[in-house]
User: Which sequence fits this backbone?
């Protein structure tokens, strides 16, 4: 029995994942991750750290990435709803600089499998959200980088009509542009 459905996206290596849900009179059960099943589908990242965060409506976290220690991620929402976004920062990718966004919520129970070298961010659409995500490398605060959420060149179509205001951390208000990131990268 295939308990996972791996759904291709327009970006190579980036997958939406749906799980078989075993409903019964008590409620439901589902496997949310299974290394063997994922590896069989060619998704062989090994995860070393799990994160969980809670945010209220309108919070936008991102666009974050680690440069020297890139983190692949497996993102899911256990309460509420987000518009989840990733940006392809793989230098050799033909979708470099492209973004992909999707709705993850506790109804569709979908997950987003994000390869390493992507920026990640999300906008909270429900009154509050709790999300969990697995990471393929450890947190390195000294290596944390970001791109400003409303960068005009990436041009993410955030569903801003769904929120009254966008709430950002101080840090997330001051990331540089994608152009500045590329200029810096040219010298590396
Ligand atoms: C990410 C992280 C943070 N922290 C500590 C550091 C701060 O004192 C506190 C909040 O961190 P921060 O404001 O960076 O949390 P987010 O804004 O949710 O950052 C995350 O948001 C986007 C959407 C991501 O995908 C990344 O995992 C991550 O960058 O947690 C840790 O101790 N370990 C960690 O792995």
Assistant:
């Amino acid at each position: 029995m295939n308990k996972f459905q791996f759904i291709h996206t327009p970006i190579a290596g980036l997958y939406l994942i749906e799980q078989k849900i075993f409903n019964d009179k008590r409620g439901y059960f589902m496997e949310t991750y299974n290394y063997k099943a994922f590896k069989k589908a060619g998704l062989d990242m090994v995860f070393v750290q799990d994160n969980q965060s809670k945010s209220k409506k309108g919070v936008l976290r991102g666009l974050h990435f680690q440069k020297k220690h890139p983190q692949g991620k497996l993102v899911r929402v256990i309460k509420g709803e987000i518009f989840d976004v990733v940006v392809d920062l793989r230098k050799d990718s033909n979708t470099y600089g492209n973004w992909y966004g999707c709705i993850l919520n506790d109804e569709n129970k979908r997950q987003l499998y994000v390869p390493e070298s992507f920026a990640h961010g999300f906008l909270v659409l429900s009154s509050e959200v709790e999300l969990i995500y697995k990471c393929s490398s450890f947190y390195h605060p000294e290596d944390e980088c970001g791109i400003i959420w409303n960068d005009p060149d990436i041009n993410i179509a955030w569903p801003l009509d769904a929120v009254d205001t966008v709430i950002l951390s101080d840090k997330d208000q001051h990331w540089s542009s994608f152009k500045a990131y590329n200029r810096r990268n040219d010298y590396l």
About this structure: The CA atoms of residues 50 and 134 lie 4 Å apart. Residues 51, 53, 61-62, 64, 120-122, 139, 169 surround dTDP-4-keto-6-deoxyglucose (CB under 6 Å). The two ends are 47 Å apart (CA to CA). DSSP finds three helices and 13 strands in the chain.
